Amino acid sequence: MNHIKTDILIIGAGSGGLSVAAGAAQMGADVVLLEGHKMGGDCLNYGCVPSKALIATGKAAYGQRHAAQFGVTDTEGAVDYAAAKDHVADVIATIAPVDSQERFEGFGINVIREFGRFISHNEVQAGDTVIKARRIVIATGSSPLVPPIPGLETVPYETNETLFDLREAPEHLLIVGGGPIGMEMAQAHIRMGCKVTVIEGGKALGKDDPELAEVVLSSLKEEGVEIAEDALASEIRGSAGVIEIETKDGRIFKGSHLLMAVGRKSNTDKLDLEAGGVKPSRGGIEVDESLRTSNKRVYAIGDVAGGLQFTHVAGYHAGVIIRSMLFGLPSKAKTAHIPWATYTDPELAQVGLTEAQAKESHGDAVEVVRFHYSHNDRAIAERKTKGFIKVMVVKGRPVGASIVGYQAGELINLWALALANKMKMSQIAAMVAPYPTIGEINKRVAGAYFSPRLFESGLVKRVVGLVQRFVP
């Protein structure tokens, strides 16, 4: 058995673990990084990267079939499914060197390709190596949650970890789960020529503002996606190519392939948390505001910390704990400024409070201002007029922004900046946006906040009248 000592031991080489490793090593800490599976974690290999690559294929096919509106002849837009998966693999391969073992060894990090498990409060065993560390970071991420639906154990199914390996297009894809993953893959596959049915036990896109979610859902339905809500799967039966899902209310859905997309579970099974004095939680690992666990030598970040499960949150968590571990400074993780996006067409994005949450928290003090894509000249030129933005404002400061429409995931960045820095609507309104851009939507919604104050105010009109009469 090999024994080594280090300043910081990181378990998991996904986005959060890699961010901590790179930052800590380049600032002079001695770092050991453990990864028992693939460098880059879920995001690079099974999540954000491959899904967006497949969405791009669907978008290209859809564009060919709907080109006439731009004066270009529509074509069939036929998809070679295997070639599309080659495109996905190439995208992953292009990005992979950034997350590679070689790159991180170049930072002076000791990368060990083994899973780690606690054997004491400050020791972890990985293969035939025992690492004793002053600080330990758990960044093991999450995996697809597969619920115990009767019959599922005998039926072939896909998750996000296997879907991108398929080489033949599903004739009819059944998707259990109407969250972001389910809806993104539903639209990508309908655009690639598959039939798609989404079966959701509650409301599809149920964690988003229902007014915005309805814009997305109606678009998917228009493209041919069947969306069954309040359809809780009670039994799954069949075999490859012939699968049936029966719901509690007796509905039966038939298809050729099945994708389970009902959520995520934190990866803690291999860690032996009890030996490390680390208390688990329902969502993964219990942490305080500084992302410390019950063992103060140990931090947990990203999906395994049981909060918002996004790649960018794991990266943010990395910055929070680096400040604490390397400099001994107080540092707390916050969520009010964390944005998220669903990459359907139209896109759906959110930061801060939704309208319902803002009214619950602030009551009548909330003002909700809107601006529609149909009034944006660039959106008109691009034929992307479906959607709108609404911003929740309290005493001149935005407390939340919700966007559905073209490039919503890009537009939400400005509002994430505003919330992170407690900016005022007047600062957004003072921005000058180039014309014509989609980004003008952000400025125009800020203008919509001030318009009634300027144009409907008797005081303003009286002041202007006095200036015109008496000021030379």
UniProtKB/TrEMBL annotation:
KW NADP (keyword) present: yes
Keywords, alphabetical: Disulfide bond, FAD, Flavoprotein, NAD, NADP, Nucleotide-binding, Oxidoreductase, Pyruvate, Redox-active center
InterPro entries per record: FAD/NAD-bd_sf, FAD/NAD-binding_dom, FAD/NAD-linked_Rdtase_dimer_sf, Pyr_nuc-diS_OxRdtase, Pyr_nucl-diS_OxRdtase_dimer, Pyr_OxRdtase_I_AS
Annotated residues for binding of NAD(+): 177-184, 200, 263
Co-factor(s): FAD
GO MF term (any one): NAD(P)H dehydrogenase (quinone) activity
Binding site for FAD: 52, 116, 140-142, 303
Domain of life: Bacteria
Gene3D superfamilies: 3.30.390.30, FAD/NAD(P)-binding domain
Ranges where the Pyridine nucleotide-disulphide oxidoreductase dimerisation domain occurs: 338-441
Disulfide bond found in the keyword field: yes
Protein name: Pyruvate/2-oxoglutarate dehydrogenase complex dihydrolipoamide dehydrogenase (E3) component
